Write the structure tokens for this entry.
Amino acid sequence: MLPPCASVLVVEAQLDVLEAIQAALEFDGYRVAAVLGSKGALEALERMGRPGLVLLDETLPEMERARLIRFIRQEPTLRSVPIVLLSVDEHIRLPEVQAVLRKPFNLDRLYTVVRTYCEPRREEEGPVHSASAEASRSEDEAGGAQRARGLSRS
């Protein structure tokens, strides 16, 4: 059995996709640090400590994406953190990432890929909180659950 994740870092270029992933993972018991674009990703890593997993959007500017991956792989406390690339191209291969999650994806596929690397935290392991680095949340929890359902379970 995999250890529970302290948190999952999601770095995504599209706000609606970022919010949907964040809502879905929080609903499933994960702590999520959500970053819109890559500008705040390094700061989010410093604030949150070592995440259990990084979900990284492939459409981010290549230099910024490469810089973030390089930072994670060179930092001793982070180098073993799995990185999953979110991409429309399922055939893309980068040696620094453990998997590619092909866009668009449904909730079942998202949960399967995330659970490959870490289990969600459970109530007895402490509260689950969201740490939003760049994305603002203007909707309540019901709106977040609605966004999560928008990813679908088909």
Summary: Confidence is low (pLDDT under 50) at residues 124-150. Residues 13 and 37 are 5 Å apart (CA to CA). The domain at 8-151 is CATH 3.40.50.2300 (Rossmann fold).
